[in-house]
UniProtKB/TrEMBL annotation:
C2H2-type domain span: 142-169, 170-197, 198-225, 226-253, 254-281, 282-309, 310-337, 338-365, 373-400
Alphabetical list of SMART domains matching this protein: ZnF_C2H2
Major place of residence: nucleus
Pfam families: zf-C2H2
One GO CC annotation: nucleus
Protein species of origin: Pelodiscus sinensis (Chinese softshell turtle)
Residue span of region Disordered: 1-95
Record keywords: Metal-binding, Nucleus, Repeat, Zinc, Zinc-finger
Official protein name in the record: C2H2-type domain-containing protein
PANTHER family: C2H2-TYPE DOMAIN-CONTAINING PROTEIN-RELATED, KRUEPPEL-LIKE TRANSCRIPTION FACTOR
Length: 410
């Protein structure tokens, strides 16, 4: 027979936090009663005068006789029914699982968290939850047998060990590519589905990965959390900071296998390698001309569209390329950043400095003049490339402007 324990009025449940009473079971065995407090404690008492009985707990003192046991059972039944009536909205007294005591259960209603984490003061309603939380700060019981790295969870260890074993159990059904983790497969699958679930609230642009959205949002907020320790310059992305730091260190880790030239960034190496391979993957849809770099194609396409997006703030003149605007702005500012090391004369453009240096490297006479640009048809040489281009039209018969074009220019 089982009955359920209820704390007397005025008793503080926190005083019993160490006792863990789950339920009281009274098992009758002859003239002895076994009172069990939960799964760990048990007490045995003799039945009779001066010993524990349900009647004595209620203040009743029955006399001795043959019907003593039956009277005790009846009164115990009445006490149980009385306890049921005190519990509102329930037909039977509430029972607890083997792992939850009445005190632990009452803490869920009272929002009581007596167990406090030793590091940051975080509180928990059960000591088992606190023990699990402490593993975050202290324990990493799962060790990698290959490199000795430790982990808090066995699932993290399993994912890590695939780095050593090379196992990639998650397969893409569209292209057959394999991945070590399901999260990587989910991200990859968005390439095939075109799904971009992460949306920028400022401009509406969508992204496949949350990390890309975080990086993009810094454009709107102006946040530049990555700082160069040498010059203090800040960047939106860590990768941009790493590339920038190589300017200070002089590091160029990416080498061309064809000529041995080294570069600070992989993108620069990829562009350079196309010089050796002759690859020109970017094609103009208007004229079919191909280019090694996308930026060169973008500049070229403005010839067909007539777009001139770069405007001079001083005079309003517009240009197709930013570099042309930079050169033009020096007319207004008077800046001449290119200096001749021989005579210290300065120039607005680098090309003008290059032409000027030929005065110092060759004789300033027509006979001994330094002329690096030679015509392949007549072997005539010129000091500037533009002079060679104009001369070549004599051999090719090319006429850039027709009569109608000339009238338009007038």
């Amino acid at each position: 027979m089982e009955c359920y324990w209820q704390a007397p009025k005025g008793m503080d449940l926190r005083d019993l936090s160490r006792e863990k009473p789950v339920r009281i079971s009274i098992a009758q065995k002859g003239n002895r009663e076994t009172i069990q407090h939960g799964p760990q404690r048990s007490e045995q008492r003799e039945t009779g005068e001066g010993q524990y009985s349900p009647e004595r707990q209620q203040g009743n003192h029955p006399g001795k006789g043959q019907g003593k046991s039956s009277h005790r059972s009846k009164r115990l039944k009445r006490n149980t029914e009385a306890m049921q009536q005190k519990i509102p909205h329930q037909q039977a007294p509430y029972t607890y699982s083997d792992t939850a005591t009445p005190i632990e259960h009452r803490r869920t209603h009272a929002s009581e968290n007596p167990f406090t984490g030793f590091d940051f003061g975080k509180s928990f309603s059960a000591s088992s939850l606190l023990a699990g939380h402490r593993k975050i700060h202290a324990e990493k019981p799962f060790f990698c047998c290959y490199c000795g790295k430790s982990f808090r969870r066995s699932s993290h260890l399993i994912s890590h060990e695939r780095i050593h074993t090379g196992e990639k159990p998650f397969n893409c059904s569209d292209c057959g590519k394999n991945f070590r983790e399901t999260s990587a497969l989910v991200k990859h699958s968005r390439i095939h589905t075109g799904e971009k679930p992460f949306n920028c609230s400022d401009c509406g642009k969508n992204f496949r990965h949350r990390s890309d959205l975080v990086k993009h949002s810094r454009i709107h907020t102006g946040e530049k959390p990555f700082y160069c320790s040498d010059c203090g310059k800040s960047f939106h992305r860590r990768s941009h900071l790493i590339s920038h730091e190589r300017i200070h260190t002089g590091e160029k880790p990416f080498n061309c296998s064809a000529c041995g030239k080294s570069f600070r960034e992989t993108s620069a190496l990829v562009k350079h390698s196309r010089i050796h391979t002759g690859e020109k993957p970017f094609n103009c849809s208007a004229c079919g001309k191909s280019f090694r770099e996308r930026s060169t194609l973008d500049k070229h396409s403005r010839i067909h569209t007539g777009e001139k997006p770069f405007n001079c703030s001083a005079c309003g003149k517009s240009f197709r390329e930013r570099s042309t605007l930079d050169k033009h702005s020096r007319i207004h500012t008077g800046e001449k950043p290119f200096y001749c090391s021989a005579c210290e004369k300065s120039f607005r453009e680098r090309s003008t400095l290059v032409r000027h240096r030929r005065i110092h490297t060759g004789e300033n006479s027509h006979i001994g003049e330094f002329t690096p640009f030679n015509c392949s048809d007549c072997e005539k040489s010129f000091r500037e490339r533009a002079g060679l281009v104009r001369h070549r039209r004599i051999h090719t018969g090319e006429k850039l402007l027709s009569c109608c074009d000339w009238e338009k220019l007038q």
